[in-house]
Amino acid sequence: ATTLRAAAVEKGRYFGTAVAASRLGDSTYTRILNTEFGSVTAENEMKWDATEPSRGTFNYSSGDRILAQAQANGQLVRGHALAWHSQMPGWAQSLSGSTLRSAMLNHITQVATHYRGKIHSWDVVNEAFADDGRGSRRNSILQQTGNDWIEAAFRAARAADPSARLCYNDYNTDGVNAKSTAVYNMVVDFKARGVPIDCVGFQSHLTNSAPGDYQANLQRFANLGVDVQITELDISGSGQADAYATVTKACLAVSRCTGITVWGIRDSDSWRTGANPLLFDANGNKKAAYTAVLNALNGG
Ligand code: G3I
């Protein structure tokens, strides 16, 4: 196949990108978006601060624009993110304890209900683990509402949208390490106790290369009976094209790796300013990394 989206479909996967609503008027951007990508994730527009700017008042305008343009172009939509300590609106940041817990659960219920039946996979909880090398939970105000906040979030999301795949999503979990093992143990526990979880997202914000045990890490999660997805892929540095090929081949080698999302289209669209970590240059031209991904998708 000659596009990322078609090549991925031939392998039973999706290939997606993060999308910013503010760029949808850029014709180069939308041409590449609709030609090359079969799935979209709102980069910011479905987050808590965007969708519930004041308590109980919901604003879906930008998220709905992204959804509508995806539906018009036959693309899947990943929802991102229902519960995250970052990009919480100011009113929620000022809450704590049971009041914050209730506000979080209401937020999840409202947003997942608004998008019910339209979202392929939701990042229900994002970045809840710390980078302390011990696999601790991140000490956020959400965590301070009680250690069971993650499972409460997943149960609320399942009740609101039973057809969406419900994912836990994090970064620095791309190889086998203390943080990814803590997430792994949480999935083991959730599966044992019947807490609804369907997938784990590996953000994969990488530099130079993928961890040597990248595929093995995906596989150990898949072996627990959850899907795995590469959710925010971008790679800076010297080994860029090779690392993109490695990640793509790893996903194809794991039958429960259902798709890959890159975190933006052109280097100039990336949150990693100056890192040039994406598949298209600022002019929208395909980079060596693009060819490496396409060839990997077409291989085998
Ligand atoms: O929309 C406002 C604009 O009105 C204002 O003038 C401008 C001034 O700074 O800010 C704009 O908001 C920015 C927003 O992106 C939209 O561009 C925020 O400041 C900025 O913080 C925000 O950054 C986003 C970041 O998440 C926030 O944590 C990035 O675009 C987005 O790529 C990034 O994505 C995260 C994933 O959600 C989770 N995983 C990590 C990943 C990278 O940080």
Automatic annotation (TrEMBL):
The keyword Protease does not apply. It is an enzyme of class 3 (hydrolase). The keyword Signal applies. Residues 1-296 form the GH10 domain. The active site is at E232 (nucleophile). This is Beta-xylanase. One of its GO terms (molecular function) is endo-1,4-beta-xylanase activity. Its EC number is 3.2.1.8. One of its GO terms (biological process) is xylan catabolic process. Keywords: Carbohydrate metabolism, Glycosidase, Hydrolase, Polysaccharide degradation, Signal, Xylan degradation. It comes from the Bacteria. It catalyses: Endohydrolysis of (1->4)-beta-D-xylosidic linkages in xylans. Belongs to the glycosyl hydrolase 10 (cellulase F) family.
